[in-house]
Amino acid sequence: MNIVGGNSGGVFGNRKNIMEKCSACGLCVDSCLLLQEIGEVPLDIATRGPAIEEAFSCNLCELCTAVCPEDLSLAGMFAAKRVEAVANGEFPIYDYRYIYPDRELNVCKLYREKYHIDYNDLPLDKKGAVAFFPGCTMFTYAPAITRAAFNHLQELWPYISLLTDCCGKPLYQMGLRERGESYTGYIKSKLIGLGVKVLITACPNCFYQLRADLAPAGVEVRTIYESWGEGKPGTSSVTIHDSCPDRHEGIFARQVRGVLERLGYQRVEMEHHGTTTFCCGSGGQVSHFRPDLAEALIVRRLEEAGKTGAGILAGYCLSCVLNFARISSGIKVRHALDLLLGLDEDYNGIKERARALFSGPEGEENWQRVMAE
Ligand code: SF4
Ligand code: SF4
Fold first, then answer.
1. What's the CATH number of domain 98-223, 3.30.910, 3.30.390, 1.10.287, 3.40.50?
2. For residue 65, which of 115, 129, 162, 225 sits 20 to 30 Å off, Cα-Cα?
3. Which residue's CA lies nearest to atom 8 of ligand 2?
C-alpha cells in the first residue's frame, strides 16, 4: 500500500472504514505517541473528522495499521487530510518550501553547494540500462557511502550511471499531490530517455515510491542489497532499525539481515522490529512540522536499542541514521552500508552542519536564497 503516493483511499475512504470497523480496542493508541497525545481512539477521531494539526503530526508510519486487528489505516486518513488542507489553502505548506525537492534551491542543494559535494567526476545521468539511485539524503549527507557504493556496483555493472535526483516522496508526504505527480512524470521521462531498465536504490523510501511509479514504464527497481556479494567481514553485535516504508513487505529487513549475518555480524533484535518497527521521527516530514514529537520518537527508539546491549545500531535509511546519530546515546549509530563497505562514518555532526548554514553572518542570506519566491 502506498499511502502518500496517491493510493490513500481518499479523504472519506479510510475515514469511513475506521468509522465502520474500529472497535475502539486501543491497541494502536498503546503503540503511538501521537494517538496518546490526542487522547482519543480512532473511532472518535474519524467520527468528528481529523484536525489539520493532527494530520501534520502523524508520521504516516503505519504502525497503527500493523497492530490493528481490522487493518485500518490512520495514515491513509491523515494523509488524505493533508492533501485536502493543502488544496484548500488551510495549511501554510509554502512556509516549508525550503524542503521541496523540485525547487531550484532547497536545504539539500544548499548543503551540497556550501560543503562542496558533487559527483561530476562520476558518470552522472549517462544513457544506459543500469543506474544507481542513492536518494537525496544519501548523496547529500553521506558522500563517502555514495561513492563507495557506486564503486561497488560498478564492479558488477561497468557501465552503470549515477542519478542524483529525489524520488519525489516528500512532495506527496507534504500533501502536494499534484506537484508530486508532476515530479513523478519528470522522473519517468528522464529514466525512459536514458534507457534505464534496472534502477538500483539504496533507500527504502525511494524503492517503494519508485517501484510503483516505474513498473508501468518497464523499469525494474531493485535494492542495493539484493545482489550484494562480498563485503567487509565483521563480528560486532548489531541491532537493526527497520524503516517504516519497509514495514509491510520487509524486503530491506530480510536482505540487510541476510548480508550482515553472512559477513559474521551478531544480530540482536529490538522488541519493535519488522512489521512493528517504531518510526525514527522523520516519517511524514514530522521533524519539520512537530520537532518536539520527532525528538520523543528518537529517544524512544534509542532507549529500545540501548536495551539490546548491541554495540551498533544500524539503519538502512540514512534519514533514520541521521536522526539517531544526533542524540548522544552510548550506542554507535551506523548505516548498514558503512558496515558492508568497511566505512566508519560518524554522522553525529551532520544536523549541526546543516543548521550552521542558517546562522552567523551568511545565515540570513542563505535563508533568503532557499526561500526565494
Ligand atoms: S501512522 Fe504512525 S504516527 Fe500516524 S497514527 Fe498511525 S502509528 Fe500514529
Ligand atoms: S487498533 Fe484498530 S480497531 Fe483497535 S482502536 Fe485502533 S483502529 Fe480501532
1. 3.40.50
2. 225
3. 22
| Phi and psi at residue 243, to the nearest 5° | -95, 150
Distance CA 197, CA 161 (A): 12
Helices (H), 215-317: 251-262, 286-289, 291-308
How does pLDDT run across 214-260, given as a tens digit for each residue?
988 899 999 999 978 777 788 889 999 999 999 999 999 999 999 99
For the domain covering 237-342, report its CATH number.
Answer: 3.40.50
Take residue 90 and report the three cell numbers written for it.
488551510
What strands, in cross-sheet order, belong to the sheet with 198-201?
161-162, 130-133, 198-201, 220-223
Tell which atom from ligand 2 comes closest to the C-alpha of 29: 6
**Best mutation site among 62, 280, 297 for ligand 1 pocket (most ligand atoms within 8 Å of CB):** 62
What does the CA dihedral 66, 205, 140, 108 come to, rounded to 10 degrees?
Answer: -90
Q: Is 35 in the pocket of ligand 1 (CB under 6 A)?
A: yes
Task: Report which secondary-structure segment, H or E, holds 130.
Answer: strand 130-133
Alpha carbons 285 and 235: distance in angstroms, whole number:
35
Q: What share of the chain is helix, strand, coil (3-state, %, to 5)?
A: 55, 10, 40
Cβ contact 8:79 at 8 Å: yes
Distances (CA, A) of 239 to 242, 263, 271, 336: 10, 15, 10, 10
95-119 pLDDT, tens digit per residue, is 999 999 999 999 999 999 999 999 9
Which residue, by CA, sits nearest to atom 4 of ligand 2?
Answer: 25
Cα 247 to ligand 2 centroid, rounded to whole Å: 18
Residue 309 in contact with ligand 2 by CB distance below 6 A: no
Indicate if ligand 1 lies below 6 Å from the C-beta of 164: no
Asked if residue 41 has its Cβ within 6 Å of ligand 1, the reply is no
Which residue's alpha carbon is at the smallest distance from atom 3 of ligand 2? 22
